[in-house]
Structure of WAT1-related protein:
Amino acid sequence: MIISELRIPNMKKTSSLKLYLAIILIRIIYAGLQILGKAALDGGMNTAVFVFYRQALASVVMSPVAFFVEWKSAPPLGFKVGFKIFILALLGTTMSMNFHMSALSYTTPTLASAIINSIPAMTFILSVILRVESLKPRKLSGIAKITGVALSLAGVVVIALYIGPFIKSLNPHYVFGDENHERNGGQANQNKKFWLIGTSLMTITNITWALWLVLQVNTLAFH
């Protein structure tokens, strides 16, 4: 009995550790996507073409999995649910990805990765507006949420309004592109107009992505 009781906390610690490691891995993958996406755009690829190839490759990889694993257990897809899925795809894939890649062409992978961290705050705001989640300002949890949202949005404003000096890489080798790409990127980063456009587009990306997350609750409840 004592041994089994000792194993339960250890199992919980192991699962928590795996969860944290998975989150860290996901963030590393997202950072790599920002860098590769910026390199592709600097190389001359069109933003819409990049999004198309990205989603087409994902469809090719995931379609067999969905067909062979889920087709027996999945409920029938009616018009109402299909329309909701279409709206979700329009917000979370088409609009979000195209705005995101357009913003990345004006800014840097660092800015993109930093502003993405404001998605939880925007998701919370939209959840409260759409009454998916309740706000309890008198409780400690509600105060913590409001403080976190305020700090997150303040960080977005600081990133949008402040452009730091261009720092030349210490690595003499250019993994993506050449020296001209780095020089052009540095000049673009110093352009206040481009920086504000990129930040605004990235903010729109986060809003559409947050709305996509909030609206999924109602759709997943029926399908």
